[in-house]
C-alpha cells in the first residue's frame, strides 16, 4: 500500500490505517478473538497505522492491542490518546489535560500497551481552562524522555494548533473528516498544511453510514451509541439516506462499494490525509483496504463535492455530551 508521512516526524504509515475503538465498545457486541484476527489480517495486507486511546473500553482497547503487537512492534506505528476521563461503563466525561495528568496517562498507556515508546501521542480533547502551551510542554517532556516519538492533537481549532505548534512541532491533528463531515476544510486543514501537519481522518465512513449498509436506526445493535446520535435519528436519518444514495449511485457505476468511493474521495484530498476507518471484522477491513486501489476521476470527485458539500449532513455529529470539547 502507498506510504504517507506523519507530518515532519519522520514516521511513515500505510495510506489507510485502522481505528480500533469499536473492538472495545460503542458499536455493539465485541469479540476479542474476532478482533485479534482482524488486527492480524490488517498487518498481513499492509496496514501499519493502528489507532487507539486510553478511554476506549476504559483501557481495554490498549490491552487488546498489546496482544496483537507481540512480535510486530518494530513494524507498526502505534497511536494512542489521553485526556478524556470516564467512569467505567459511562459515556459522560471530564477532560484533563493538566501536565501532571499527561505524564501519568502516558505511563499508564505504555504499561497497558506493553511497549517502551508511543509513536504518536495525542491530546484527545482540550480542556480550555488549561493553557494548551502547558499541555504540549508536558507532552514535549515525554519526547525528551524517549517515551513518545511524535505529538498530536484531536478536534482542536486552528488557533489552538498554532499555539501548540509554537511550543513543540505537532505532527498530526486527528479530526472527524469524511464526505458528510467536512468542517476541517474551512480552517483546520489549511492551517495543518501551512504548518506541515498531517490530518488523521477518523470516522471516514461517516460511522458506517457512507457504506450504504445502514437503512434505519433499528439496523443498529442494542447498545450501539449511534442510536443516540442525531444523524441516525428520525428526519435526519431520512435526509442523510438521500446523501448516501448519491454515493451509492456513483459506486454502482464504477463497480465498487459506496464505502470504497468514500475512502477513495478522502485519499484524493491530498497525501497529507490519513484515514483510519474502524472495523472489528475481516470482511469490512478487506473492503476498506481495497479502496486504496480505487481511483476517482476529476469529474467523479467534482460530482461528489457537489452532491455532498460541507454542511450537507443533517444533525449534529455527536449527542450533547460528545459535542463537548470539539474545535476547542
TrEMBL record:
InterPro entries: AKR, Aldo-Keto_reductase, NAD(P)_OxRdtase_dom_sf, NADP_OxRdtase_dom. It comes from the Bacteria. Coiled coil: none annotated. The keyword Oxidoreductase applies. Residues 16-307 form the NADP-dependent oxidoreductase domain. GO terms for cellular component: cytoplasm. GO terms for molecular function: oxidoreductase activity. The keyword Oxidoreductase applies. It holds the Pfam family Aldo_ket_red. Transmembrane segments: none annotated. Keywords: Oxidoreductase. This is Aldo/keto reductase. It comes from Magnetospirillum aberrantis SpK. The lineage of its organism: Bacteria, Pseudomonadati, Pseudomonadota, Alphaproteobacteria, Rhodospirillales.
Amino acid at each position: 500500500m502507498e506510504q504517507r508521512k506523519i507530518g515532519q516526524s519522520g514516521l511513515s504509515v500505510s495510506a489507510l490505517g485502522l481505528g480500533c475503538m469499536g473492538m472495545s465498545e460503542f458499536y455493539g457486541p465485541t469479540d476479542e478473538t474476532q478482533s485479534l484476527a482482524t488486527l492480524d489480517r490488517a498487518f498481513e495486507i499492509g496496514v501499519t497505522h493502528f489507532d487507539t486511546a486510553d478511554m476506549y473500553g476504559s483501557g481495554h482497547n490498549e490491552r487488546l492491542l498489546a496482544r496483537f503487537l507481540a512480535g510486530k512492534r518494530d513494524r507498526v506505528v502505534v497511536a494512542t490518546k489521553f485526556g478524556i476521563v470516564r467512569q467505567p461503563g459511562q459515556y459522560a466525561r471530564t477532560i484533563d489535560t493538566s501536565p501532571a495528568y499527561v505524564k501519568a496517562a502516558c505511563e499508564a498507556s505504555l504499561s497497558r500497551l506493553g511497549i517502551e515508546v508511543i509513536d504518536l501521542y495525542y491530546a484527545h480533547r482540550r480542556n480550555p481552562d488549561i493553557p494548551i502551551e502547558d499541555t504540549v510542554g508536558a507532552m514535549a517532556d515525554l519526547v525528551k524522555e524517549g517515551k513518545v516519538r511524535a505529538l498530536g492533537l484531536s478536534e482542536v481549532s486552528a488557533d489552538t494548533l498554532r499555539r501548540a505548534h509554537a511550543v513543540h512541532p505537532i505532527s498530526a491533528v486527528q479530526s472527524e473528516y469524511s464526505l458528510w463531515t467536512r468542517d476541517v476544510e474551512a480552517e483546520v486543514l489549511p492551517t495543518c498544511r501551512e504548518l506541515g501537519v498531517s490530518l488523521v481522518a477518523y470516522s471516514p465512513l461517516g460511522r458506517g453510514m457512507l457504506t450504504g449498509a445502514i437503512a434505519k436506526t433499528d439496523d443498529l445493535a442494542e447498545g450501539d451509541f449511534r442510536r443516540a446520535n442525531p444523524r441516525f435519528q428520525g428526519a435526519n436519518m431520512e435526509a442523510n439516506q438521500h446523501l448516501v444514495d448519491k454515493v451509492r449511485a456513483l459506486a454502482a457505476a464504477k463497480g465498487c462499494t459506496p464505502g470504497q468511493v468514500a475512502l477513495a474521495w478522502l485519499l484524493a484530498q491530498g497525501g497529507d490525509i490519513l484515514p483510519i476507518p474502524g472495523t472489528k471484522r475481516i470482511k469490512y477491513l478487506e473492503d476498506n483496504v481495497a479502496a486504496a486501489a480505487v481511483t476517482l476521476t476529476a469529474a467523479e470527485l467534482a460530482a461528489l463535492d457537489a452532491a455532498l458539500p460541507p454542511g450537507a449532513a443533517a444533525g449534529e455529529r455527536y449527542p450533547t455530551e460528545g459535542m463537548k470539547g470539539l474545535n476547542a
